[in-house]
Specification:
53% of the residues lie in helices and 8% in strands. It is built from 6 helices and 4 strands. Strands 1-2-3-4 form a 4-stranded parallel beta sheet, with helices on one face. Strand 2, helix 5 and strand 3 form a beta-alpha-beta unit. Helix 5 crosses helix 6. The longest helix is centred in the last third of the chain and has 22 residues. The two termini are 36 Å apart.
């Protein structure tokens, strides 16, 4: 109702929402987030950077997210130079951000189109030796996610790398 919505615009509610958001959102850009994380990292905290809200509706969306992931891996990797996947920050990847038709009904198409993109990102993370986590998807996409993960993880180019992880 409009009465309930008016409460959301009160200064105290907005301030509370900002405080809660600050606990989970480190920055609105990767550079900002990495700067804000430095004090906590200095005392042993580690972050896995995630681009919130990503889900590709179109091919252009998927390409934009792929490039964003590439840029983020590059930035995190350069900032983590000389560290390992355990001591450096990492990145979280959402599979549905990389393909606009991420659904089981399109299984073969998604496997053939998405797996090479994910492998490209994983190889870049491996080259920097940063953590690379595949985010959980909705339950109806779990089987497809596992098929893609299996195909990418079993690629010989990733042999010996322990930075590949899954969020469950």
């Amino acid at each position: 109702s409009s009465h309930a919505a008016s409460y959301l615009n009160t200064p105290i509610i907005l301030q509370g929402m900002k405080m809660i958001g600050a606990q989970f959102v480190t920055g609105t850009t990767l550079d900002e987030a990495m700067q804000r994380a430095k004090p906590a990292e200095a005392i042993g905290y580690r972050y896995s950077y995630d681009m919130l809200g990503e889900s590709a509706k179109t091919r252009a969306d998927a390409e934009k997210y792929f490039k964003s992931y590439q840029n983020a891996i590059d930035a995190i990797g350069k900032a983590s130079s000389g560290q390992t996947h355990i001591t450096s920050p990492g990145i979280s990847i959402k599979l549905s951000a990389l393909h606009p038709r991420y659904e089981f009904a399109k299984r073969e198409r998604v496997l053939n189109e998405l797996a090479p993109l994910l492998l490209t990102l994983a190889k870049a993370a491996k080259a920097y030796n940063i953590g690379f986590t595949i985010d959980a998807e909705e339950a109806d996409r779990l089987e497809l996610s596992l098929d893609i993960i299996e195909k990418v993880f079993s690629d010989p180019a990733l042999d010996g790398w322990e930075g590949f992880g899954l969020a469950v």
